[in-house]
């Protein structure tokens, strides 16, 4: 295990760049997983990381020691940093002191949409994106298509909110959603407060794709028009709309309910 | 309409304190509503604010001018600030330049729980709290009980995420939830991954109260034991858990579905 003590060390400088710059993460095709839970999920569902980084204090933690041992057994490069150097890399307050550096998967968009999926158009908030990925994975949905304007799915914030969902999903980014919808072989559903059919009346017993849009502006008009069905989540109170991640959870789990019946 | 140009002005100093200090907001029993949407919802569902604050630039905006006219017609004190002074008060980037100062309502906890409600134990994240309030209001739930450890419901962040839900709900804060559950005359449901009954099988056709807990640790064990029923949100994928606001939305709208059937 290598110990880095100088902040001028080239590997440390590279880690700092990955930790602080979204552009650097996209360019390098790498990102950081922060904390024991994400690291465990990654080992369980994907495999070994490219690099394992721990703080000096974290070496005393039994869970970290066990993860470190797994990495070393798999010949993963492991690095120990003095606590102040480590904390520059982590966005998690009172975190345990463990980071995995991983290669972000590059998935090729399938030629046709044939299984249940989520299509996200211009979704902005990392917390909402993470929550939607988590709900999708829990609902057994396996594919997520993100438009170019959607938040970067592999940012530390989205990874944290996703709680490991990323490793159960195929996530396609920078996707032309109109083309995906045009080539869909399954119904593509969009929620709309103007729809006459309730999501609870829609037939969700087969695979469907769910379209969700921007937090403020909703779905782009062209995509709304391309959707094969519009459904409304019925309200009993005079609220105009739901948070997009809440709406997505309701839709995905209505699909779960109908599938399990 | 009063124009304040000095940052040493006592009213401006008070506004700055309200904008930046949660403690000051709690002490004063006042908070800030930021933006046209919250202001409109407040006028529609509650009434006139204590004070209306606008930036110089916002005076040119037609929606702001209309809200300002309503305030002035109701003899509400209105204040114009130079843009740089205004921006110190607002957390909204590229906001329109309108703030309402309002008195936070003080609700007295009813002696018994008799209508559908949400009980929040130690919920931390303002975005989650706002999303839950929004889902509850949309589902026709009218009461929300927050434990002392739950995020302050009237903070600007929670208000923004709530999108006006606050004005459709009775929100009780600093509540002893164990006492509320003990005096409940309706079923109190808690979600648990160990439950054998699915939320989709539970009878939600009458009023029920929903218990949700801390984002990481879940519901306190004593509250979980006090709940009259435990229900599970069935998962089709190997995700451990859902975001708490997503779980709440699924529960509230399963209740809507069963009520509407």
From TrEMBL, chains A, B:
Residues 117-252 form the tRNA/rRNA methyltransferase SpoU type domain. Coiled coil: none annotated. Keywords: Methyltransferase, Transferase. InterPro entries: Alpha/beta_knot_MTases, Ribosomal_eL30-like_sf, rRNA_Methyltransferase, SpoU_MeTrfase, tRNA_m1G_MTases_N. GO terms for molecular function: methyltransferase activity. It holds the Pfam family SpoU_methylase. GO terms for biological process: methylation. This is TrmH family RNA methyltransferase. It comes from Paraherbaspirillum soli.
